[in-house]
Every structure is written in structure tokens, then in C-alpha cells.
């Protein structure tokens, strides 16, 4: 049976009502309310949940703010994540939002919806907002399962996420591939032409092929070492990628054209990289080559779309293509596949 007693401050002034619930098999519960009616209501609900066996201790979630959980997440979870540097940026932005001052138990879907509106007003794109929400959602799941906040409801699951724009469908058309390769200037970099061909043949991401750096707090941080010669087996015609964007290693089969590219590349004993340059170097050279070739609206990443579509046009099945590209879901694979209607017409006979 709950006991409800008046609560007083040090001067003896009445400030509210304290509820104490002591029941066998449950930890003692104490909570103070402004009015007796609120105290009685909470006591009734709590005792009812205990009797029905559905009670959950809410003290941790009611006494811990989102900011405190974000701090803990930064210390315990992010260091073990491959995309930790990027996610730390999302986390730091959550720490600055008004919602961070709220207690975990009080955060509802409508509060998350307000944060979504804030991000939209800041000019953030739909995918960026979704990545922020993914971090917040995972934090709530960790808090619920590992931080003694089992009573929490994940508020991210109750809100509508921004709709992603239609994926790019840019492919190489007509003689664009020949024009692009012809525009590669070996005097500027010997790596661009082989990198383009290799990307088209393997569907590898730029970060899987090339050494990649980014700036964080005015410091350069290497985010990818790129493809290494030790991970290439010319006899088996494979390239092993121990670290990929989705966190899973994969081994990519190499076509005859890809093998020829590798055999023609210079191999310096003191440089373990297959492509002895960085993504930034290739990106700048790629932009210049497109300009010389008169090709508009083409990005290096579009070559991954091109490669994925060509795999299907060669007759490979979905699971075979996914094994090469590393897509975890068929939905994501579909976003990277843009088959040409004229090629499909030929298959119809």
C-alpha cells in the first residue's frame, strides 16, 4: 500500500506530497508531487502495474537527460563504430539542441518532430536528417536495453522521416566513356584513367579504392587507406576489402579488364597502395577531365551506378550483384541500378 505524506522545505513551508511505495519483490519507489491528486494518481498506476507484472523502473529515465546519455554514448558506443568520426559530429549537434536538456522519459515523438523542423530550417537535406535520427534512435535502444531504462519508448519510431529524393540515375551515354578516358591527362596524374576503368569494372566505392582524408577541427584525419596490393590476388582474380562503408568485409571478383588495369599500374615497393594517390587528387582530376571532354553532371560516384547497372545487363542475378557491390538490401541495390530500356527491349526479342 502506498503512503502519501506532506512534504516541507527547511523553513517548514508545505511544498508538495511525497509518495512511498514498498512492495515485496520490487525496489522501494519514492516520488514527490505538487498536488495530492497527482500523487494519488501516480501511486494508483504504479501499484496497478506491479500487481499485473508490467511495472518497469522509470527512475533512471526520469532522472537522466538526453545530454547525459549523449555524453555516455560518445564514451561507450562511438569509439567502437567504424563511422565514429562522422557520428560524433551528429552527436555534438544533438547536444546543442533544446531537446538535449529534457529528461529521457519525457521525450516524445512530437519533440523529435520539432528537432526535424529545426534541421530542415538549417538547410539540412533529407538524408542528413535521417542520419541524425538514426543516431538518436540507436541511443534510445542502447539506453533501453543496456542502461537500465527499459521503460523507454523510442520516440524516433513514432515520427515521419523526411522523404529521400529520388536517387541519381546518371549513367554514361553514347561515347561518353571513350571521351572521358581520352580526356585523361597523364601529365597531371597517371592514376585517373586506370581509376575510372577500375571503378566501372568493380563498382567499388571511392573510399574502398583510394586513400581518403577529411578535416576535423582543423586536423587532417585519414578515413580510408584505399585498396592495398596485399589485398589483391591476381591469380584468383579477386580484391579483398577488409573495411567497407557498411562495416562488412567483402571480396570483389575482377574482370579481365580490371586485371589488365592492375597489371599496367606502377608498383612501388615502398607504397602499399594500389592507386598511389588520394580521393581528392582523383576528384579534382576527374572534374577537369569531364570539362575537357564536354561531359556535364557526371560525378565519380556515378561510375558505381554505371558498374552496378552493367552487372545486371550482363545477366548477373540480384544476389550475385549484391555480393560484388556490398549492398545490404535489395532496396538500396535498386537505387543504384538504372537499366537502359533499349537493352531490355533486346532481351524481350
Automatic annotation (TrEMBL):
This protein's name: Integrase
Superkingdom to which the source organism belongs: Bacteria
Any one Pfam family match given in the protein's UniProt record, by short name: Phage_integrase
InterPro entries to which the protein is assigned, alphabetical: DNA_brk_join_enz (IPR011010), Integrase-like_cat_sf (IPR013762), Integrase_catalytic (IPR002104), Integrase_recombinase_N (IPR010998), Tyrosine_recombinase_XerCD (IPR050090)
GO biological process, one term: DNA integration
Tyr recombinase domain ranges (all copies): 167-349
Cited SUPFAM superfamilies: DNA breaking-rejoining enzymes
CDD domains registered for this protein in UniProt: INT_Rci_Hp1_C
Keywords: DNA integration, DNA recombination, DNA-binding
